[in-house]
Write a structure and sequence with these properties.
Elements lengths: L5 H45 L3 H5 L1 H67 L2 H7 L2
Helix pairs in contact: 1-3
Amino acid sequence: MAEKTRSEKLKRLVAVQRHLEQMAEFDLAETTRQRAEVNEDMDSVIHALGSMDPVHHAFSQGYADRFNRLGIKDKQLNGMQEVHQMRVQQERAKGDRLEDGMREAREAERREADDNAIYDIIDQKYGTPASSKLQKP
């Protein structure tokens, strides 16, 4: 198997890094979804607490306890959401740096190939007399 160039290796690393970025984005989306559910539950509890229905008055302490638990869970999810946002930014920055490195490596490889092609043309045109005798039939 032929040895891979630096740009090909970096291309593979970029693909892996972008996958890690997608995983971090998924975690962020999941935490955001859970937080939205908690907020909906909190709204329902607040609505029940404010209700004039006598059935809800009988369970007011339970609603208050539930609201407190939901508040704690919301704070936890908020912290997790911030962590996931930072992770997404870090993974994206790593991917961008790798991608820039890949582009630079690819450009260096193109320049080297172009230089080698020019050297080959110069060698063919101004090569040694022995090499020109070998080329003539």
